[in-house]
Amino acid sequence: MKNHMKTTKALLSGALLAGLLGALAQATAAEPEVSLIIKPKSHMREASLHAMVASHGGRAERNIPQLNTRVVRLPAKAAAKALEAMSKNSDVEYVEPDFTATALNTANDPQFTSGNQWALQKIAAPVAWNTTIGSSNVIVAVIDSGVSATHPDLAGKVLPGYDFINNDTDATDDNGHGTAVAGLIGAATNNGIGMAGVSWNSMILPVKALGADGNGSYSAIANAIIWAADRGARVINLSLGGTSASTTLQNAVNYAWNRNCVVIAAAGNSGNNIPQYPGACSNVVAVSATDSNDLRPSWSNFGSYVDVSAPGVNVLTLQGANSYSNWNGTSFSSPITAGVVALMASANSSLNNTALVNTLLANSDDIGTAGYDVYYGNGRVNANRAVQAALGAVPADTTAPAVSITSPANGSTVAGTINVNLSSSDNVGVTRTELFINGSLFGSSSAATASFSWNTTAFADGVYNLEARAYDAANNIGSRTISVTVRNTVIVDTTAPSVAIISPTNGTRLRNRSTNVDVRATDNVAVTRVELFINGSFFGASTSSAPRFVWNTGSIPNGTYTLQSFAYDAAGNIGASSVISVRK
Would you call 43 a catalytic residue per the annotation? Predict the structure, then answer.
């Protein structure tokens, strides 16, 4: 499966702009108006966006709110100039034509041969059914031309859907393509009529994004993908495609992928290696076609974007409202694969989308050149192998380890050589711990609990960030960062504290009662002790920098008295106050 997202830059350059303008020119040849998809940057005001569009004679048509994109309509003659101008607007993240995708079937043989379902035998579906026939909890979205829910082989299998062509809740098929696709995924089976589907009990969620002519805009398809993901689709089938790459389409696929959906798409029927989208999007399983001899038909697309292959020649499935027919195209290889994934998800509901896709690809039958090749991808799907592997598969570990720095403490001051102690834990197991100092790797250990000796004298005094990282076997990473201050330089304190007697003041006449003597002291580091002397004799001491001494002046003889205070700091510096005189 593709892992790297393909993007369209906001400032379109050279070949990309030419390609988009070329596609736009083809669209405008048949249409008086065309659609563009615009994603504004977060700071762009809605009024400014509408003004920009209106300046080119355009108007807003609809939104894709989850992607923060707007679909606008413009006169065809103004579209090329508008596209170029908007792509250079610093408030616009990207703008692209609303391309058209088409249902990817090449031919429809109307002859119906009862029981001619060679494809199910080829992929070992009947053997897989001994393990699972699917689950009604596994919903497969069919994004296509709609689905005829009244077909006898779909009775009770079709959930309420949505129509993004007419923007209503009637997702009835008016083309036939979507119904044929749905039949392969989950036609009612063992009911004495018609055909068998790959995943008997899975439910079909119909989302109409193609019109009666089999065509649909990328914006409608993007909306359909998002809608299906939000309504619990476990698997999304896209038997459609266009040759133009699209950021909007990729973002919609990513939206579904981030909601644990498996997205399956047809590789295309042009018989060349020109990528078809969404099949060539990241996070999509692209499916090419095979015949009954496991050979690629000449019309099946190929290329590095192909992930797997499945039967797509003379494949029996539903036709119209109540009949059956043989169909050809990667449009039918894709739903067979989607049905296999639905069986896998039914067999082991704990597997996430990554585990399902990896298991599917690893358990396909290798055909063609040994190993991966551009014609068959990782091989032709095998339902039984994939289901059995899914049963034994361990759910992907997505839980990062917990890690902490147990010493030194956050915010502490350190000096000399110290031990930095790390402790970590994980739901499966920690494979490695690391210590980073100010972003640089300092040391690593294979133990969950580790101690690193840090000679801080090799570092300048200052604040340092210590980051602990813990890794598990799935390469999930947990981290914790604290800050400490290195202080190795000894500062010699030669500054004496300042001290003063605040009350009583010099010349005060004392009354025949207790008198409060208030002293205040300050120091560049800290005051450690304050003393009071009366007539040169020690009276009292305090560790406060602002002590109050109580002097019982009612019991002393009349006369003149001198008061002086001394303050000390930790370095032994002594400060003396002025001498004051008072009388009683």
Answer: no
